[in-house]
Amino acid sequence: MGEKVLVVKATGLKNKEENLQVRNDIRNVIKSVLRMILSHSFQVEYEVGERTTKYSIDINQQDCGRLLGSHGRTIGGLRTLVTAMAASAGIRAVVEIKNEERFF
Question: Matching Pfam families, A to Z (predicted)?
Fold first, then answer.
């Protein structure tokens, strides 16, 4: 099953400190949402590429259904939220579930 990712074109921020703060704020929002949805521990990490920030969510296999939601609506909503937050700051961001293929 292919992963759907929403992408926004990057325009850049004023400085590196502001970039770092926005990325950390987005990670904290992801963590807050996941704390309310998942019942097991998880990790959220991000990797800054040349043009895109990739947020990786590592979850317990038992929480897969909770995170994906019916027809992917929950993870889709989270991806939309992250994309909107990043776009408002002028950066590009994607959300992936680490080793998603292990759940299928």
Answer: KH_KhpA-B
